[in-house]
Structures are given as C-alpha cells and as structure tokens.
Amino acid sequence: MLTLYLADLDGTLLTPAQTVSERTRETLNALLEKGAHISYATARSLETSSAVTRGIRFSDPVILHNGAVVSDPVQKKPLAVARFSEAEKKEILAAFLASGLFPVTYSFLAGKNRFSYFWERSGEEQRAFIATRTGSAAGSERARELFSADGILDGDVFYFACLGEKERLLPVYEALCARYRCFFAPDIYLKAQWLEIVKKDVSKASAALALKARLGAQKLVVFGDAENDIPLFEVADECYAVSNAVPSLKERATAVIGSNEEDGVAKKLAQLLG
Q1: Residue 255 CB partners (closer than 8 Å, separation 6+)
Q2: 220 pLDDT above the threshold of 60
Q3: Domains in the chain and their CATH numbers?
Q4: What's the confidence (pLDDT) of residue 196?
Q5: What gap in Å lies between CA 262 and CA 171, rounded to an integer?
Q6: DSSP string of the chain?
Q7: How far apart are CA 105 and CA 196, in angstroms?
Q8: pLDDT for 110-136, tens place per residue?
Q9: Measured distance CA(125)–CA(103) in Å, rounded
C-alpha cells in the first residue's frame, strides 16, 4: 500500500533555528532512497522552504503557501496554483487599506514567482520579515520592491500576507474571513501577528488530498504543530503532533511525538517505515 507522509516545516520538521538537524536529514534521505513518499506542507514559498531543507532529497511535489501552490521541488515549477480573480484582489487590498495596513503579495508575474512589498507602507514587524526574504540566502531575485501602491496586485496573485499588531489586523480578518480562508495566528519567531489570505477552498488539506490522488496513494500520514495544520489532521488517516504543538492540535492527534528540537518527526518516520 502506497502511503504519503507529509510534514509541516516550521515548528515541526525544522528546529527553532529554522534548520533541519543532521539526524533528520540523514534519516529522511535514507527513507527516501528506499522509495518512501515523504514531502512537506508549509506556509513558506518554494524558495525559502528549499533553502531551509537543503540537503534533503525531496522528489515528490511539495505543498506551499498553506495549499495555494503545489510545486515540483526538482524542476522548481508550479503544478497547481489557486489564483485570485481581479475582483477578489481588489476587495482584499481595500480591506487592508481601510485599516491603514499594506500587505505583501505573492504572485506569478511573467512566468516568475514574485514577492512584492512596499517598504514605506510596511510596519516595523513586517519590515523585519521582509528583511529575511530579501537577503541573498532567501532568493532575493524574486523580491519586487514597490515605490508606490501601484503594482501590488500585478500578475496572478495567490497569497496575501501582513505581519503586525493583532488589534490592527483583527478588523481585516473579520471583514474577510467569511469569503476567504484566513490564517490568523502569532508568528513563532517574531513577536507579532500574521494574517495570511488564500482562496476559500484552499488549505493544506485540500492540497494534500489532491497530491494523494496524484500519487495514487491509499493512505495519508501527517505531522504538524499549529492551528493551520488542523484541516490537514482532519483528512489524514494518521496524524502526529510534535510535543511543542498547540493544545488544539494535540487533541486531534493520533499520538503526540517528540518535539522539533528532538527530531520527533524523523524518529517517528523511522519507526513507521522501519
């Protein structure tokens, strides 16, 4: 029976330092070499997820941007993208502007994956995040700095994100959550709140089921730590929460495993596939 194993990255497969340990790298590569179907589902882009998992030889498609994009990690090409319509893009941007906020957007523009931001309209917390996505190690060639509000909606936009104070983001969340899937949660590295927006029918769960069908898998086993992993847990045959996971995820788990500091995912995969 073919089984698809999917792990979240931040807080799950990655250490608190946003890296993979040598033990995790060696364990996963040994299992992948034997033919195991192991991949990941993350809110990250292909560029940053590839950077933080460097050395692990993933070959099956990976789930990115909380399910909005599925990509081939070898060819570095998107296989599925859940794009917003022109009307949806304008509605979402208007909600941010009404609260005095300016988001970053992720899009495909002229065939390239682009990360667009307006530094002058970004708050302190968002600038700290932007700085991590525009350095040489983060794939800065995709970063697209804007010098006016024009251009933030260019191309096939599939993801809006804004990092800031929870109180300021809450009205935007309340205005949009009925029509779009909104991820509203604290950042695990920075002391700030995320509001991330994708199309209503998009989630790690929907992308995982599509990937399961694409591979012809009969079973889905997942690993996670945060609330955005709850839909994924609900559609999985087995679901494992790392010990540092939020309580609401642990309640839904098949079992709780070691933390992301203890190679919990790698150890469980070795046990399941041993």
Answers
A1: 240, 241
A2: yes
A3: 3-81+202-273 (3.40.50.1000), 86-198 (3.30.1240.10)
A4: 97
A5: 38
A6: --EEEEE-IIIIIS-TTSS--HHHHHHHHHHHHTT-EEEEB-SS-HHHHHHHTTT----S-EEEGGGTEEEETTTTEEEEE-PPPHHHHHHHHHHHHHTT---EEEEEETTEEEEEE-GGG--HHHHHHHHHHSSGGGTGGGEEE-SSSTTTT-SEEEEEEEEE-HHHHHHHHHHHTTTSEEEEEE-SSSSSEEEEEE-TT--HHHHHHHHHHHHT-SEEEEEE-SGGGHHHHHH-SEEEEETTS-HHHHTT-SEEE--TTTTHHHHHHHHHH-
A7: 10
A8: 888 999 999 999 999 999 889 888 764
A9: 12
Sign of CA dihedral 221, 7, 72, 53: negative
Distance CA 162, CA 197 (A): 9
pLDDT at res. 146: 92
Q: Residue 244 has which token pair?
A: 């540092």
Average pLDDT of the residues of the chain: 94
Compute the average pLDDT of residues 82-98.
97
Backbone region of residue 7 per phi and psi (left: phi > 0; alpha: psi in -120 to 50; beta: other values): beta
